[in-house]
Amino acid sequence: MEFGVVIRIVGVDPDDGMITAAVDVDCGGFRGVSQLYTTADAFAELSSTLRLFPGGLTKSLKFEFGIPDSYGYLSLAFSILDATGRCACRVQLESNYLPAYGPGSRKRVDVDMGVEPNAIDRLVFDLQNLLNSEPGEAVLEGLEKF
Q1: CA-to-CA distance for 88 and 137, rounded, in angstroms?
Q2: Residue 114 CB neighbour total at 10 angstroms
Q3: Residue 66: what are its φ and ψ, rounded to 5°?
Q4: Separation between Cα atoms, residue 93 and residue 68, nearest integer Å
Q5: How many other β-carbons are positioned within 10 Å of the β-carbon of residue 5?
Q6: pLDDT tens for residues 17-40?
Q7: Tens digit of pLDDT for each residue in 48-106?
């Protein structure tokens, strides 16, 4: 995939239920990878909220996983572009677990991509499968031009 976001669950802590997710962002030459800690509830909220988007009164949504300037962080900010439901998605991905130069340094990528409504529907479906402990990945396929 040349444009998009891929989320995979790589571990679940049996004591507190925290999820370790691997995230891969690719946007036509700009690419980032990271891992972050989150909860199943956070993915469930993303899935249930996106199920109704685009549509209704909400013109924009933002979801954050992990903590900025911490181990790993992902932000997905959706906004409606036109009456057909095409959206823009600003993706921010940050990683501290990979080697970087200098004290306190981290790696970060911020990209914007277009998203069709059916790509959001597929992401919701994929997230539901992950939450049901099915192996695989949740994919948000982006567009080069929007």
Answers
A1: 21
A2: 16
A3: 80, -170
A4: 9
A5: 26
A6: 788 999 999 988 888 899 998 988
A7: 999 888 876 678 999 999 888 778 899 999 999 888 888 999 999 998 765 556 555 56
Q: Cis peptide leading into 54, omega within 30 of 0?
A: yes
Question: Nearest CA to 111 among 94, 126, 96, 99?
Answer: 94
- Fold of the domain built from segment(s) 3-141: Transcriptional Co-activator pc4; Chain A (2.30.31)
29 conformational bin, left if phi > 0, alpha if psi -120 to 50, beta if neither: left
Phi, psi of 68 (to 5 degrees): -60, 150
Tell me: pLDDT of 8 over 90.
yes
